[in-house]
Amino acid sequence: MTTNNTAAPTKALKESDIYDRQIRLWGAESQAKMKSSKVLYVNITGTSAEVIKNLVLAGIAATLCDTRPVEAMADAPHFFSPPKTSKKVKYSSVAHAVKPMVEDLNMLLGECPILEKSVSNLGADDLKDYTVIVASQIPLAQATRLAQVASKLKKQFYLADCFGFNGAVLTELGQDYHFRPEQGKKLLEPQPLKEYLPLEEYVKVPLHLTVNRFHKKPPKVYVLYRCLLEYQAKTGMFPSQEEDITIMQDFLKGQQVELDDEHLSKEDLQQLAKAGVAQLPAVCSVLGGMLGNEIIKVISGKGEPANNTILLDGGLCKAWTFLVKAKK
Amino acid sequence: MNPLAGIEATVGKDMLHKIQTSKILLVGGGGIGCELLKDLSLSGFRHVEVIDLDTIDISNLNRQLLFRSQHVGMPKCTVGCQVAHDMVPELEGGESDNLPEVIYKAHHGNVCDASKFHVPFIQQFNLVLNALDNVEARRRVNRLCLAAGVPLVEAGTTGYLGQVTVIHKPSQVACYECKTQETQKVYPICTIRSTPSMPVHTIVWGKELYKLLFHSKEGESMLYEDLEGEEPSTYMESVMKLRKLLWDEGTDPKAIAAAVEEVLQALYVTEIQKQLDMGRYKAAKKTPTPLSNDTLQKGCSSSEDCASASTTNIWSTEHCVAQLVDCVCMAAKMPRNEVLESFDKDDDMAMRFVTATSNLRSHVFGIDPLQSLYSAKGIAGNIIPAIATTNAICAGLQVLQCFKILKEQILKGDNRDGLDLKDICKYINCIRNNTRNGLYITASQLEPPNPNCFVCKNANIPLTLDVNEFTLELFLKLILKKRLGFEEPTIILGGDFIWEEGDGADSEEYESNLKKVLSKLPCGGIQHGSVVEVDDASQNLTIQVTVTHQDVWEGDEVDDNPFIVGDAPPHRHEPPRKETAEPPPAAAAAKPATEEDGDDDDDDIIVMIDEDEAKAQTENGDKKRPALDVEGEAPAKRAKTSHDDEIEVIEID
């Protein structure tokens, strides 16, 4: 094969070769925007590992923020779990263990920086350098706080988790968020979201009111995710091998959601308490792919984004966006 | 801590055990294949075998997550298996004592190779996952799985769109071939040679012109005409002169340049003018305009740097001329064996040549838009966009379907035929813009088989042709192998064999039949109303073909070897997919990617149908018009299917 394009710098040539199949989809302009964007990952879980994998492959640099000890990864191996051969290396945190694997995935991106801060200490100064922030397995209170900070900085924030066969993403796109809708290959003029609700507000909507014409009852996946977050808020940790579902039952009672055998059963809650945030690689793969697409939409400015939650039912193999707001 | 504890808590102890003891076959180790290997290994699958014949290319690295730049050139299946093997979570203490050893086995080869991959081979597995990029291989795996009674989880992606479906004969669900498959993109040759109307037509022409100049056998090009023949095109003489100069040693570069100018003059001026004078374009919507001599001369005397010209801007006509002179002079300087005989999109010179020739032709014929080298490469090389996210989604959905199948297998035990997946598995669509009710991923009921499917319903195939014109050789090549996907057909007429091939077959005995026309074959020959039985042991397929003789073909139907498979009138629009659970997602439901193309762009044959020519296209139940297929793969990859390098050219004008 002869490639005589010596005039172009070696690196540029390599990038256009490696990214060729995607540039043909979203264009060189989008690729340039991706190259100049950075995503901050707060906690690296099976779910966010899939997002990192997709976006790093596509050429969007990652910064890792996860001070949890490496044992936090033990029960949910993912693509960036350190290989067996490096078991003897003692990493000080999840971020440090994952870092070399991320760097190895796309050499063009260079070093993968680590932000050495705990979730509760993250502030505007930390988030300002990123286009997008993706958090996983953090308390809802922290997610709400980070969403507010991100919104003020005009950054996009996502809270994404898979649990059992299900997955959920809560989004904060910001008050002034504009996107360019696609009409076939044509790109239309920028427009705002049809309806914007800040994350801090829509998570306050009582669950029994989170219905619409297609979902006469609150979507089960969303209700279950809120139960997990509630359990975490009450106990400081996500459930695992838990048998007591009192916290969840009380929460649902307060939200006026009734259990029934068809839509949402007591067994569903028992299963949730038992498996907690256990993640199936296949479910993470689907949700991570969907969220990857969303973030590429946001960075490239092309395409209508999901507003304001994304819900995945891996058992039914269905996923949809659901606008959480109070039914009038 | 048990690394699989979370999975066990979710799927249960029995299911985890089933995962750990099942044998999975994965066909294809590319974009979707890598994602599947990751999901399978992390889920704890311990026995996975992978078939793939491809090697790793640099353009794979944006999505094929198991590969790194140091792996470029190595077999995908080998590297994929090694990496995935090491990703299977290690169990502590005695937990793995009663479990099978972790085996991720690579088969570097073509799944169409019947000597290795046959029905008993498939039957070793609990299920098969397809992660393929071409119709031929999909068809093959479909037939093997139907014959073996093994569930097949099929998937395909194009850009943002993806599909997953499950095929299983005992469950009475549609097979891959129940619906029309576009195997090749076909263009009537007169469109390419005389009446181009789209950029792709001139690009195909450019690829043929490349062959005409550089192939060791000029007759391989569809543009070739015998100088001694009846009224050869005006360009042939100058082409033959240039070919001679090219490979003569010590030819003066100036003489080459002059000869190139002559060829261009003939192609873009004289021949066009001749056709105009003959009134060829009287009825045409657009009349071609010969290239101006001024442009030709300016281009030929240009001293622009051609090798480093922009790949993303559109070249001027002068620059196109300069490019062509440069390309041919460059080839003249190279040892003959280093100049590729046919176009290859990854060869810089060939790519510049095709970009320039096709743009000049588009310019002459007033075809919009002109193409940059970058975009011409996409068309000429059949490049289909591919991204990690869509592959990840589809692979994840495939594994979720896998879980459903394995769960059912636990319930039904070893009773292979007792397995009913009809209401358990789903047809899944992944789309870019959500449906009215917000869906990005939709699941609907698997369709029942098409009662007229000759593959899974053994339906009788009506065939119309001229039994006094078709030889057995053409019948085998065009109809049985190309059109119906037979690998090793045995033909039985009135209880007697008239052809067999493949392992252990006595082909010599029947060789004398090859040149005979169908009506003159032994055992009374194939006549109007004959019923011919065709078997293929390699895919456990038997069909009956009922022959209708027709010797008068009119209008469109007139070409050298006309035939009609099926009895339905030509129709190109498929009936809309029946969506039970959800309204059909408009964008994706119209054309399921699994049926047209796969994940791995370049190896694939894209479907790009010219509206005007749609009627001439091949479809189930349609007349087949053998024509020119577009393929632009590197020679190394061409061995992928047996049909790939067979370009068929049939005169229809």
UniProtKB/TrEMBL annotation, chain A:
What the entry lists under Pfam families is as follows: ThiF
Which GO cellular component term is one of those annotated? cytoplasm
Enumerate the InterPro entries for this protein. Answer: ThiF/MoeB/HesA, ThiF_NAD_FAD-bd, Ubiquitin-activating_enz, UBQ/SUMO-activ_enz_E1-like
Nucleus as a keyword of this entry, yes or no, is: yes
Looking at the UniProt entry, the stretches that span the membrane are none
Where is the protein situated, by its record's location annotation?
Nucleus
The record places domain THIF-type NAD/FAD binding fold at 19-309
What biological-process GO terms show up in the record?
A: protein sumoylation
Question: Predominant location of this chain?
Answer: nucleus
Print the keywords alphabetically.
Nucleus, Ubl conjugation pathway
According to UniProt, this protein's pathway is:
Protein modification; protein sumoylation
What's an example of a GO molecular-function annotation for this chain?
A: SUMO activating enzyme activity
UniProt family annotation: Belongs to the ubiquitin-activating E1 family.
> What is the protein's given name?
Ubiquitin-like 1-activating enzyme E1A
Automatic annotation (TrEMBL), chain B:
| Residues given in the record as Zn(2+) binding sites | 175, 178, 453, 456
Binding positions (ATP): 28-33, 52, 60-63, 76, 133-138
Pfam families xrefs: ThiF (PF00899), UAE_UbL (PF14732), UBA_E1_SCCH (PF10585)
Xref: Gene3D superfamilies:
Ubiquitin activating enzymes (Uba3). Chain: B, domain 2, Ubiquitin-activating enzyme E1, inactive adenylation domain, subdomain 1, Ubiquitin-like 2 activating enzyme e1b. Chain: B, domain 3
**Domain of life, per lineage:** Eukaryota
Domain Ubiquitin-activating enzyme SCCH, chain residue ranges per copy: 311-371
Q: Where is the active site?
A: 190 (glycyl thioester intermediate)
GO-annotated biological processes:
protein sumoylation
Q: Name one GO cellular component term.
A: cytoplasm
Q: Where is the composition biased (Acidic residues)?
A: 595-613
Residue ranges with Basic and acidic residues bias: 569-581, 614-628
Q: List the keywords (alphabetical).
A: ATP-binding, Metal-binding, Nucleotide-binding, Ubl conjugation pathway, Zinc
- This one is known as SUMO-activating enzyme subunit
